[in-house]
Fold:
Amino acid sequence: MTGSLLALILDRVLHVAVLLVLPPLLPGVVNRVKAIVAGRRGQPILQPYFELAKLLRKGAVYGHGTSWVFRAGPVAMVATSLVAGLLLPLGGRSAPLSFAGDVVAFAALLGLGRFFTVAAALDTGSSFEGMGASREASFGALAEPVLFLVLALLCVAAHGAGFEEVLEPVGAAAAALTHPVLLVAAASLFIVLLTENSRIPVDDPNTHLELTMIHEVMVLDHGGGPDLAFIHYGAAVKLLPLRGAAQPPAPALPGGRPGRPRACWWRAWWGRQWRWASPSPRWRGSACGACGTCWSPPARWPRWGWPRCCSTGGAEMSQLADFLLLWVVVLGLQAVATTRITAAVRAVALQGAALSFLPFALGHHLGALAMVLTCAVTLALKAVVIPLLLSRSIRAARVVHESEPFVSLHVSVMIAAGLIALAFSIGAQLVLPWPAPSRLVVPIALATLLLGFLVIVTRRKAVTQVVGYLMLENGVFIFGQALARELPFVVELGILLDVLVGVFVMGIAIHHISREFDHIDVDALSSLRD
Amino acid sequence: MTPSLAALALALASALAAVLLARDERRAFRVATAGTVLASAVGLAGAAWALVTGEVSSWRAAWALPLGEVHLGVDALTAFFTACASLVAGLAALHGFTSLPARSTAGPPRLARAGALYALTFAAILGVLLARDGLLFLVSWEVMTLASWGLVAHDAERADARRAAMTYLIASHAGAAALYVLFALLAGHAGGYGFDRLLAAGPLAPALAGTAFGLALFGFGTKAAFFPLHFWAPDAYPAAPPHAAALMSGALSKMGIYGLARLLLLLGPPPAAWGVLLVVGGALTAVVGALNAVAERDLKRLVACSSVENLGIVALGLGVGVLGRACGEPDVAFLGFAGALLHVLGHGLMKSLLLLLAGDVADATGTRDLDRLGGLARRMPATAGAFLAGAVSLSGLPPGAGFVSEWLILTAALHGAARLPPGPSVAAAGVVVALTLAGGLAAAAFVKAHGVAFLGAPRTAHGEQAADPRGSSRTAVLVLVALVAAIGLAPGLAALIPGRAAGLLAGAAEAPARLMGALVPVTIVAWALVALVALLALGRARLLRGREVRTGPVWGCGYEALGPRMQYTASGFPDPAIGPLAGVVSRTVERERPDGYFPAGARFVQRHADAAGERFVMPMVRRFLEVLGRVRALQAGRLQLYLLYVLATLVLLLAWQIGVAP
Structure:
C-alpha cells in the first residue's frame, strides 16, 4: 500500500519535473533537425536553455505607454500552459490532474493564455502588433471548435469525457471512428482553407513572414529580459502538451493552437512535410523519429494502423488498408481545396501511391509475383509517370493557379464534405456480391469518384480537369478492389493503360491548345462548338 | 415565504413612494432606489434561506382575480431565480444611485420616473417568480414588460431610444401573445389557471404538450432573446440607462429562462425532441450573438450582443439537461441543468458588471464608439481592471464565473456525446462545437473591446477628462467583481446555489453533493493558476530588482512615427474572424479611394448589421405590416361605419345564438 502510494507520488513528481524541465529541449531538437535537413550543422540541442539563462539575467525594455496588461501577457502565457500541462497524460502516464472534463479546462487555459497575449499586443498600440493580435484572436476562435469537434467525436468513440478515457481505448473503437474522422478531416481542412482565404498561402516561402506574424509579431515588443524568457519558455511548454494532445486522432488533428505548432501543422499538411523538420504530431512520429520518440513511445500512435509489421495478420492488414483509404480521401480533399495546380497534381500522385499498396493491404490472394507486379505497375503509372506527364504539360502551358473556379474554394470544400457524407450513406446501403474486404472501401471509392467529378465540373483549367479525371479513375480502381474477385487485375491494368493513353492525349492537346490560344481555359473552348 | 412577500411589498412601496415624491426628482429617485436596494437585500436573504433549508411553501390571498387567484409560492427554482434577480437588481440600483443623477442628458432628468419604473420592474420580476397561477403570472409579466419599456424609453429625446423602445414593446407583445395562448391551452387541459391544478390534472397528450412547449419557446424565447427573436436586444439594452440595462440583461431576460424551466416542471418528463430543439435554438443564438458581438464597434451594443450569446449558452445547457432527462441519464441531465442555471447567475453578475462599466465609459467619455476610444486604462484604471475581469470571465476563461458554468455544460455535453443514444449524442456533440465556437468568438469580442477601449493610445480627444466613477457606483462594481471571482475560485460552493433547482429539473435528489465533488478539480485548476501567476509575477519582480528597466519605442516594422490613429481599430480587428462567416453579419463598406498623383482625400467606413434582423425579421415584419395595413381600412374614422360594425356583430351573434346553439 505505502509502496504503491510512494510510487504514485514519485510518478507525479517525475511528471511535473518533466513538464518543467524538458520543454525547451523540444524547440532545440526541432531547430537542429531543421538545420540538418537543410544541409547545415545547426545549433546545439541545448541552445534554448542557454538563451533562457541569458535572458533571465538581463534587464527589461517595455514599449512606451504600455500598461500592466502588457507585462501580464508573458506571465499568463507561462502560467496557463504549465497548468494545462498538468492536465495531460505524458508518455503513457496518467496526468497529475485527471478528471472528467479536463479537456474543457485544458482548452480554456490555453484560451486564457491567448486572451492575455492578444491583450498585451493591443496594449502596444502598434499596428503591426495589432495585426498579429487580430489574427491570433480570429484563428483561435475558429480553431477551437475544430479541436473540440475532434474531442467530442473521440468522446463518442471512447465513451468518456476525460483525457484518460479519450486517449486510451481509441484503438478498440477505431472502427467506430472511421466516419467521424472523415468529417474531422473535412472540417480541419476547412479551417486550413480559411487561412488560405486570409491570404496566407502557407508553403510559399516569400510570405513566410506573413505566417509567422501571428506568433512572432507578439513577441517583438517584449524587449529581452525575463519577459522574453517567459514567452519562449511558455511557447515551448505549449509545444509539449500539444504534442500529447494531438496524438490520438493522427490523420487530421490540427495542432489548432496559437503560433508555432499550428503553423507547423499547416506546413506539414501542405505537402512539404519532409522539408520542414516539423514538430507537428503527424510527421514527428514518422518522418523524423529523432524527436518524435523522445518521450512518447511510438507504440501509442499506431492505433491508426501504422504497419509495424505487415505480415502480422488480417486485422493489421485491414487497418493498413483503412489507413491508406483515409489518406486517399484526405488527398482527394486537398485536390479539391487547393488552387495551385501543382499541388493538385501532387495530391493525386500521392493518392495513386497510396492506392498502389491497396491490393497488398487488402490481402488479396494473389501470387507473390502478381502482387508485386500489380503494385509496382500501379505505383509507377499512377504515382510517377502520369504526374510527370502532367507536370510537363503544366510547365509547357505555364499555368500555376486555378484562377476563378466556377465554385469558390470554400463552397467546393463544403460540397466535397457533403459528397463524402453522401458516399458514406450510399456505401452503407450498397449490397455487394460478397462482403467488402474493409468497411471503408466502397464508401471511399464512391467518395473519390464524386470528388473527381466535382473537380471536373467546377474547374476551368484543362490540367485540373485531368486531375479530376485521374481521381475518378482512382475511385474506379478502389471499387475494383472491392470486387477484386470479379475483376481480374489484368482488366484493371488494362484500364490503367487506357488512362495513361488518355493522359498522353490530353497532355498533347493541352500543349497545343495553350500554344494556339495562349491559355487553357476550357470554357473558352465552348465558342468552338459550331 | 415571508421575506419574499416582504421584498415584493417593499419594491412596490418604493415605486409608489417615487410617484408620491415626484415633485422633488432627486429625493424621489434616492428614496425609490434605496427602497429597491433594501427590497433586493430582503429578497436575497429570503431566497438564501429557502435555498439552504429547501423550503417549499405557498400563500393564497383572500381575494381572487377574475378566473384566477392570488397564489404565490416558493420552491427551489423560484428561490434560485429570486436570488439571481435580487443580486443583480440590488447592485445595479446601487450603481444607479450615484451614476444616474450624474448623467448628462438632452432632456429632463426624469429621475423620479426612472426610480419608480425600476422598482416596479423589480417588483414585477418577483411577481413572475412567485406566481403560482397562470393569470397572475401573465399580469406580472405584462407589468414587467411595460415598466421595463419605460426604462428603455428613458431618453425619449433620442430617436434611437424611441425606436429601440418601440421594437422592444412590439417584440415583447408578440412573445406575450404566445404566452396567453399557452396558458389558455394549459387551463383548458387542467380546468383552471392554477399551477397546482395543472400538476394534479396529470400529463398532457404528447401533441398538446409539444404545442405548449413550442409556444413557450416562442413566448419565453422572445424575452430571453433567442435567435431569431433576438433582434430587439442589441438596440434595447444600450438605449436604457446603464443600471436599467443591467437589470434588463442580468435579471429580466432570465425570466424567459425561468419560464421555460417552470414549464418543464409543469409539463412533466420531456421528450428528447425538445432537447434537440433547445440545442439547435441555443446553438444558433450563441453563435449569432457572438458573431455580432465580434463585429460590433459600439461598446454598449457589443456587450448587449454578448447578452444574446450567453442566453444561447443557457439554452444549450437546458437542452443538454433535457436530453439527459429524456434519455434516462441523470448525470448528464443534472450537469446540464446545473451549468445552465449557474450560467444564469454568473451571466447576471458578469453582464451587469460589463453593462455598468460600459455605461460608465460612455458617460465619462461621451461616446460609445470604440474607434474613438483608446488608452482609457490610464484615466480609468479601476474601470479598466474591472472590465478585464468581467471580460475574461464572460469569455468562459478561468478563473472566472463563466468558466465554471461553461465547464459544466461542456462536460455534460461530452458525457452526453459518449453516453446518449445516437441521435441525441449528435446533438450533444453539436453543443460542444457551438459552445466552443461561441466561446472563442466571445473571447475575440471581449479582448477587442478591452484592448481597443482601454489599452494602446487614445485615438481621439474623447476621454481626456475621463475618471473612474466614485461613490456607490464604485462599490457596486467592486462587489460584482468580487462575486464573479468568488464563483470562479470556489466553484464547488457556488454550484450549491443552483444545486437544488437543477436537482428539481433533473429529477435527481442527492445530486448537489456530487456536483461539489465533481468541481473539486476545477477549483484546484483555478487556484493553481492563481498561485502560479502570483509566483511568476513575484519571480519576475525579484529578477528585475536592481536591473535596468526602461521603456523604448514599440516595433512598427522599422517605422518610428507610429500614431494613435494607426492602431488596429474595432472594425478592423475582427475582420479575419468574420470574413468566412460574413453571411451571418451583413457588412457595408463605404469607401473613396485616394485618386491621382496628389490625392485629396480618402475615406473608409465599414458598418456591421445583424443579418438575422435585416434579412429575416425585418422583411417578415414589413410583410406583416402590409397585411395589417389592409385591415386598417376597416377603421375609416366614420361614426356610422362603426355603428354598422356594432350592428353587424349583434346580428351575427344573434344568428349564432339562434341557429347554432340549441
